[in-house]
Amino acid sequence: MILKIAWKNIWFKPLNTILSVILLTASVAIISLLILLQEQFEKQFSSNIDGVDLVIGAKGSPLQLILSSVYQVDAPTGNISYEEAKTWMKHPFVKTAIPLAFGDNYRGFKIVGTTPDYLEKFGAKVETGKIFSKDFEVVIGSEIAKKLNIKIGDKFFGSHGDAEQGEVHEEFAYIVSGIASPTGKVIDNLILSNIPSVWAMHDSHDHEAHTENPAHGEEGHVHEEGEEHHHDHEEALVENPPHGEEGHVHEEGEELHHDEISEEGKEITAVLIKFKNKMGFVLWPRLIAQNTDMQAASPAVEINRLFSLFGIGLQALQYLAYGIMLISGISIFIALYNTLKERKYEFALMRVSGASRLQLLGLVLFESLLLCITGFILGTILGRIGLWLISSTTEQDYKMAFDPFAFALEKEGVLFIVTIFVGIIAALIPAIKAYRLNISKTLANA
Amino acid sequence: MITTKNLKFNYNSTIGFDFPDLNCNPAEVLLITGGSGKGKTTLLHLLGGLLRPVSGKINIDSVNLDTLSEKKLDHFRGKNIGLVLQQSHFISSLNVLENVELASWLSDKKKKSEKAQNLLEQLDLKDQLYKLPSQLSIGQQQRVSIARALINEPKLLLADEPTSSLDDENAIIVANLLSDLSKKYNAALVIVTHDQRLKERFTNIISL
How far apart are the first and last CA of chain B? Predict the structure, then answer.
C-alpha cells in the first residue's frame, strides 16, 4: 500500500519524474554499455591470444603485427622469409609454431594459408567434411558457412588482397573440403588453406598480371622479374617494409608448378609461437630484432598496451556517466524536497490516520527508489539496444560481434547498488524531515 | 467515551493553558467554544494524542493516552480517533475512494473498500469516488474527510472548526452529518469551534 502510494505520488508530478528517470536512464545506459563493451571486447581479445606466446613477423609496428596476425583486423606488416622463419620454428624452446600466409579474400573473408595446428589452437574441429590436405582445398569458418551458405564441395575464386573488390584470381578455384566448428573466435570468419595454395595462387597471378598488365603494381604488389626474382624480392621488401599492405605472398617461380611447390625462397606473413620453455618469451624479442629482419611481438603485451590506450577514453566516459547519475540524484533530491512543503499536510494526515513515523520514512524512500529502479531497468535495456546497434556495425566491419543479452553480473550488480545508493542519499534528508514532522504544529498552522 | 482530568499544557513559560475537565459519552456531542488564543486547537490536539500534556490525564475508552509509546499512540489514534479538520487535507495523488481506504489500511492493514463506498454514498459522494480530492468543492471535501474519520468506527470523533469555511447551507449539512453519524457509529463527538451557527445547533457546550 505504501508502495502503491509512492508509485501514485511519483506519477502525480510527471515532469519531475520524467526528468529524473531520463537522467538516470542515460547514465545507467552509458555505464552498462561501457561495462558490456569493455568486458566482451577484452574477452574476445584475450580468448584469441590463448596459446600464442609470441608472434614473429616483418618489422614494423608490433601492435599492427598482432592485430593482423592474431585478430585479422589490420593489414600485415609485410612478409618474412619462410626459410629464415623455419630456423626459429624448429628451435628447441618452441612447443608449437603455426605459420600464416595471407593472400586473398573471398567476399571480404580472409583466406589464410596455415597448418591444421591453427584450428587446434582455437579449439576448432572440422565439423563436416575433412581438413585441407591438397592444394586449394579449404576449410571455412562456421560463420562464413552460415552467412554465405557454403557447402562441402563448393568452388569459389578468391579476390586479391583483403578488399572485397580486389582482382579475382580466376586461374584456380578453391574447393571447400570442410567446415569448422563454431568457436566464437576469429577463426569463425576465416577461410583456411594450406600454405602452398597461397603460394601457388600468387605465382600464377603475378605471372599473368605481369605479362598482361605491367602497370599493375600500384596496389603495392612486388613484381619480380624472372631469374633475378629472389634478389629483387628481398630488395623490394627491405626498401619498403610496410609496403605490402595487403600482406600477400608474392611468389614468382620460373615455372608454374603448384602441384609440388618448393619452399625455397618462399615467404609467409607471420608465425604464431607457443613456447615450451618460457625463457624464449623473455629472450626472443631482442634476439630476433638484433639478428634478423623480423620482429617478435607478444600479443599479451601489445593488447594490454591497446587496452590501456583506449582505457583512458572509456574511463572518461564512465566518469561522465557517473556525473550524470550524480545530477539525477540531485534532481530527485530537489523534487522531493520541493514537494515536501506542500506534502507535509499529507504526511501529518497520514500520521493522524494511524501511519507511523517509519511508514512515512519508507514512503519517501520508496518514491526515490522507484525512480532509481525504473531508471536502472530502462537504462539497462537502452544500453543493450546500444550494444546491439554497435554490434551490427562491428560485425560488418570487423567481424566482431557483441552479445546484447549477456550479463556482466558483478559489474552491473555494482552499478545497481550505486544506483540504489544514489536514490537513498537523495531521499535521506526529505525522508528524515518527514520522519520528524511535528503533526500538531503542522495541522495547527493549516 | 472520553474523560480528562486536570489537563495542563505549556508552549513556553508565558503561554500555558489549564483546561477544565471534560466528559463525553458515546453518541453524545460536546461543543467546546472560546475565542482565538484560548487553546481550542491545543485541547483538540491533546485529545487526539497529537500533543502530550504537561500534566493531567486523558482517558479514551479507559485507555490512558499517557501510557502509550509513540508508535502505539499512532496505532491507537488510527483505530480509535477520527479527526475532521477545518481544512481538509488529502493525499493529492490518490482519488477520493483511495484516500478513505488508506485510512482504514493504515489502522489495521485492511482495505475496507465496500465500507468506504457505502460511507461515501451516505455522504452523497457517490459520483465523486474516482475523482481527485482537488477536483471537489470545499463542502464535498469536508464530507470526504468525515467519511475518512469514520471509516474505522472510532470511539471518539474530533472536529476542529469543521464548518467555519462553509456557507450556511453546507455548515448545517455538515453539522447534521457529524451528529447523525456519530450517533450511528456510537462515537463520542467533540467539536471545537467559534462558529455561532453550531452553538445554536448543539446544547452541551463548554466555554474556555
Answer: 21
